[in-house]
Amino acid sequence: MSSEPAIAYLDERHPKCANILRAIKPTENTELLIGSSKERGACRVQFGDAVSAVLDKTSKEENQGKVMVIDSDLEGSTGLSGIHKSHPEYVILRVI
Q1: Residue 38 gets which letter from DSSP?
Q2: For the purposes of burial, counting CB atoms within 10 Å of the CB of 81, is it exposed (0-12), middle (13-18) or buried (19 or more)?
Q3: 74-88 per-position pLDDT tens digit
């Protein structure tokens, strides 16, 4: 995406901002970023799995009063379903 329209817009209104955009140079990053997949999983799912893995290593007594997942019927979208599946004792379901 070209930054030229933004620079043209900002030149009249906020020249300092336009100069900041002009100073940005492309990087030589050659890493291929291909996002999530069935093999890698979505970031939010990885988060839920990571929290579950931590809870697997700690006792219920240690987690008591420290861990609580409050869900408003979005656990699938937020990646918390892994926690609910593995550790339902920490999940409180509330729907508005």
Answers
A1: T
A2: middle
A3: 888 888 888 999 999
Q: Which two tokens mark 84?
A: 């609910």
User: Each residue of 52-65: pLDDT tens digit?
Assistant: 999 999 999 998 88
> Mean pLDDT across the chain, nearest whole number?
87
Contact in structure between 48 and 79 (CB atoms under 8 Å): yes
Q: How many helices (H) and strands (E) does the chain have?
A: 6, 2
Packing angle between helix 4-13 and helix 15-23, nearest 10 degrees?
A: 150
- Burial of 21-36, coded b for 16+ CB within 10 Å and e otherwise, reads eeeeeeeeeeeeeeee
